[in-house]
Every structure is written in structure tokens, then in C-alpha cells.
Amino acid sequence: MGWETIIKSLRDPIVPNLLDYTQAQAAFSWKQARRELEGLPCGAGINIAHEAVDRHATGPLRNHLAMRWLGKSGRIENYTFAELQTLTNRFANVLRSLDVAKGDRVYVLAGRIPELYVTAFGTLKNRSVLCPLFSAFGPEPIRARMALGQAKVLITTESLYQRKVSKLRPALPSLKHVLLIGDEEQRTCAPGTMDLHRLMEDASKQFTIEPTDPEDVALLHFTSGTTGTPKGAVHVHEAVVAHHITGKLALDFHSNDIFWCTADPGWVTGTSYGIIAPLTNGITSIVDEGEFDAERWYAILQDQKVSVWYTAPTAIRMMMKVGAQLAHKYHLSALRFLASVGEPLNPEAVVWGQETFGRPFHDNWWQTETGGIMIANYAAMDVRPGSMGRPVPGIEAAIVRKTEEGKVEIIEQPDTQGELALRAGWPSMFRNYWNEPERYKKCFAGGFYLTGDIAKRDKDGYFWFVGRKDDVIKSSGHLIGPFEVESTLMEHQAVAEAGVIGKPDPVAMEVVKAFVSLKDGYTVSEALRRELLAFARVRLGPVVAPKEIEFRPKLPRTRSGKIMRRLLKAEELGLPTGDTSTLEDG
Amino acid sequence: MTDEEIRSIVLRVLGEIAPEADLSEIKPDADLRDQLDIDSMDFLNFMIALHRELHLEIPEADYAKLFTLNKCVQYLAAASASNP
Fold first, then answer.
1. Class of B3-81 per CATH?
2. How many Å apart are CA A557 and CA A537, to the nearest integer?
3. Is A21-454's fold the same as A473-583's?
4. CB A340 within 8 A of CB A364
5. How many CB pairs under 8 A join A and B?
6. Looking at chain B from residue 32 to 61, which residues have their Cβ under 8 Å from any Cβ of chain A?
């Protein structure tokens, strides 16, 4: 700590939506938040796509720019709410014509291209379940997630299909339809697939959303645990109430905003705030297909007149390394609100925002399971650099500890470490882990959702992140399960044991590091290290695969035989490892 | 250092970061990040390794000038000529 609080002076002509935190928290009700949305006609429930697209397409925002897409190579495409309605209707009809029903899982594996956004909303209109996958995943994470969720439909590009999916087809018996987007706008005719654009052209542009219960499943987002397979967090259509209101209160959306969320929809941020929340709020969303590049990003902020920018600590730290000088070459006067999520934002980065843009970055905290922002720094609230802020109105957060009887006890004493917990029952709370109700149940106790994050609360109610309770790795804003990496390494014939940890990194927070011991008959060599690295990258893709591999004659194990990742991590950090009893997994 | 020498060092370093890649298939004017599945951390490691191998300063603000193989060679050749 020791960082000075950034006092808000409220000199902007645009008055923040959340002006007085205490008052807003006291006055808030989810019922009232729900009233900001329309609901399906004739009381037929609530559907995310209706609130985001159709509601505006049939109202005064019909010709308002909903989405501007910036292609890697400089092409720009604009979509009004009315145009999005037509396209998403067409896609919903495509699904209907293929007998894809309510509740069937529709997966999208693509970079940030317009088709991703169109098929996402079309899927929701058809009341099928949308599961976006990160396009940088290798075949193994793709296979695992598609098999777990029993994907019926996959939408992807021809090149991704050829590189990552076509060989998986025999392992995915539930997959009935693969709809391809041709590369460079060409038609595709790969065997066993259909051309998405051809289907779209043949489909009607009229579509009426069937009655949708608020509890109907809408989204499936996979996240990683310490052990076992990835977990599919299930979200329902009612989640849109939280997407919408957090966009308004935590990201301070105003009607003429131009909003840029840099996250990929393969991760929950890129869906809740890269697809849904800006559109339910009727504002313009910028989608950039390109990867991080400081100059390109400054040019986008300037040329697109971005007013609200939601990005991630790794990107901010990379921009800091490039230096503020570059930022000063651009006119960034449209920028009004800067926010960050993915991992805790270090105080230096918060303050760097203030020095460079005249505005601090506003860190906020949430998880795949929470569906939307839960704890945040607000436009009108003083920022304590390094703190994730205070719970959004409607959310009760607490620091708790588990008692011996398995109950939870709230820790009232300020500045005391414990598990961050949220009172269960907000609209975007996950409703299950796909097909794993037991695993889901374990996340709750005493009416709270237990987040697995360790945090503290100061005497004024600001929350501070301390660490993870488990061994899940946080790298560049992505959650990576060590088990998924270990199991892949174990498939290599030379590997006897594998233990994977997050190695602290100044830019990415952590990078994936693997410790490996070899079977008898294999010897440690540089060639073998590279072979293992290649083996992991081909199967897992660059974001999940280890960045470092270190050989060990033997890996430390607990008495019950589990690899002691925490001991490996302590050794990596040069921490004392004498008392290993505290390092063992619980 | 000749362009060819630089090119072979660049390829060797890429081979360490993405050992699964067939380096003979690289299109010299296409983005290396797309072709080799290189994420932002890999790219940072690529820059650090080039610095280590060639003893040249590559300021972060210049990273975008090294996104393709030909651009790498061009940039590094110019940098080594001005910093013998």
C-alpha cells in the first residue's frame, strides 16, 4: 500500500450514473434493475438477444451504430441495430432449419470476426445454448470442452477447422453440424461441413423469439479448476439483467458512448461485455480483430473516439513498457472512463493511467461463475490504487472462513485475510456446472458462493485481492488449470510425472511453468525439452501450453500421492520449504 | 552481419519459442504471430531472445516493426549497422 488515494473531482460534463455509492447501494433492487429491460412481448419472458438487438432495432435506435468491426488488415464494417437484427434472425432460422432445438449446445470457435457476434445472438434467439471457445486453444482443449458440453453445432472458420477440428470429428459423436466461414470470403466445401454464408442467404430474415423463461440456459462458459476436467459454468437468460446494469453502473455507459472491450469472447469478459452489455445499453461497441499492438490500440482509441475502454492488466503493463510518449502522440480526448479486469491491477498501472490519460484505470473483479462485474471502482468514487473497489449495488460481498463443521463464518475484522464470498442469488450467478451438480454444490455454503479467491476488506469497505486458494494459474487474464496441462504432458511417452505451476511474471502476472520427470530409459536433453514444448503447444495451443519446462529427477508428492505444486512453486520462488505440511493441498 | 546471418538467427530463436513449427513454411511477409501461434508472451520472449543473441536494443515501441520475418531482418540489419 502506501499509494495515495485518487480523489474524484467530477469535473466532467457527463454525470456518472452512480454518483453516491452508499446511496446507490441502499436504494438498489434487482426488481427495479429488471424494469430497465423490456422483456419479450406479451410477457413471454426474457431473452438476451431481444434486449441487446431486437428491442433497439424496433425502436428509436434502429439506425444507431451497434457494432463497428475493425479487421486486421484495415477493413471496417459497420452494423446498425436493424442490420444486426436481420442477420441474427437469419442465423436463428438457419439453426431452426437444421433442427437445432432449445437447449442444444452451439459452439463458436473463431477470432473476433462479425460472424461470431451474429451467430452468438442468433443462437440465443433460437434459445439454444451458446458456448464460445477461444480460437488460440489447441485441439485438446477444444476437444475436451466440446465433448463435455456435447456440442451439437460448431461454427468456425475453414482454416481453424482444418488445423484444429477435422481430426477430432470421430471423437465428437454428438456433433451434428459444422458450419464454416470461408477464408477471405470464399465459399467452402470441406467434407462433412456446410457453408455458413450460403445457409444465411437462403434463410428468412423474419424470426420471432419463442417464449423464453428467465431460467432457460443461455450460455456455457468453460473455466479451469485445480483438478479434473474444465468446468462448464451455466448461465441463464436472466443474467442479462446483471450484464445490463453493471454496464451502466460499473462501466458508466451513457447513450452516446463508444465502448471498446478488448477481451476475446472466448473468455467470459468478451461475452458479457464484448457482446452483450454494450448492446443492451444501446451504445456502439468496437470490435478489433487484431492482436495487441500498442500503436494500433492508440490509433483505435483516437480514430474511433472511444469513450469507455475496458481492457486487461497485461495489456496495460505492455503499454506502460512502451512508454507514455507514444500515448501523447495521439488525441485521446474522447476517453472518459478506463476499466480493467482479468487479474488484480497493480497500483503503478492505476496511477500510470492517471498520469498518461488524465484518468486512472478502474480495476474491477469478477469470475466466469459470477457472469458479470461484482466488485468495482466507479467513476464517482475515489480510487485506492491496488484495490478492486466495492461491491456493485445488489451484491453483498464478505470475507469468510470455513469453520470445522463446514459452515462459514463472516470475518468482520477489517484488513483480515479470508475467502471472498458473495451472497447467492444475483441474476448472473451461474446455475450449475454442466452435468456436474456435485461440483457446483461444493461452491456454496451458508447462503454464500465461495469464490476461491483470498482477499481482505479495509475498514471503509474496499476489497483487496490477496491470492488464489487453489493452484489455478492466472496468466494474461486467463485462468489455466494445471491439471489440463499436466495430463497432456503425461501423454508423452518420455514423461513419468508432471507438475505445473504459475510462475510469477511482471507482465502476465503468472506464466505456465512445467516440472517434468522422465521415465527410465530417457535422458534429459535440450532436444527432449523442445520436443515436449512442441508436443504441448500442438495439443494445447499457445495460451495454455507451458512457456517453460524444467526437468527434475523426481517430483515432490504428498503422502496420498498428489504432486505438491505448492512446494514446486515455493522452490521456484526461493521461499523456505522446510515446513512442507502447510504446503500440501487441502 | 549479413541479412542471411540475421535471418538464420531469427529463425533459430523462433524455433526455440515454437519448436513445433515448420520454419521452412514461413511466409516472409505474413504476420509471424498468426503463422506460428505466437501469443503476446511468446512475442515478448522472442524480442528478449533476439536482444540476447544480437546484443541490440529493441525498444518496446518498435515491436510492431518486427511482426513479419522480412520486417525482422530489415529492422535488425538497420539496427546492427547503426550500432556496430
1. mainly alpha
2. 26
3. no
4. yes
5. 63
6. 33, 37-42, 44-45, 60-61
Q: Which residue ranges make up each domain of chain A? A: 21-454, 473-583
The C-alpha atoms of residue A387 and residue A384 are separated, in whole angstroms, by 6
From the list B37, B40, B63, which residue is nearest A541 (CB)?
Answer: B37
Q: Where are the domains of chain B?
A: 3-81
Predicted confidence (pLDDT) per residue in A142-185, tens digit: 999 999 999 999 999 999 999 999 999 999 999 999 999 998 77
Query: pLDDT tens-digit profile of A533-549?
Result: 999 999 999 999 999 99
Kindly list the strands in the beta sheet with A194-195, ordered across the sheet, starting from the edge strand earlier in the chain. Answer: A194-195, A177-181, A153-157, A105-109, A129-133, A217-223, A231-236, A432-433
Q: What is the pTM of this model?
A: 0.92
Among chain A residues, CA nearest to B15:
A530
Mutate to test the interface with B, among A163, A293, A488 (most CBs of B within 10 A): A293
Q: ipTM greater than 0.85, yes or no?
A: yes
Q: What distance separates the 2 farthest-apart alpha carbons in chain B?
A: 34
**Minimal Cβ distance to B20: which of A296, A325, A534:** A534
Class of A21-454 per CATH?
alpha beta
Q: How far is A533 from chain B (nearest CA, A)?
A: 7
Q: Which of chain A's residues have a Cβ under 8 Å away from the Cβ of B71? A: none
- Topology classification of domain A473-583: GMP Synthetase; Chain A, domain 3 (3.30.300)
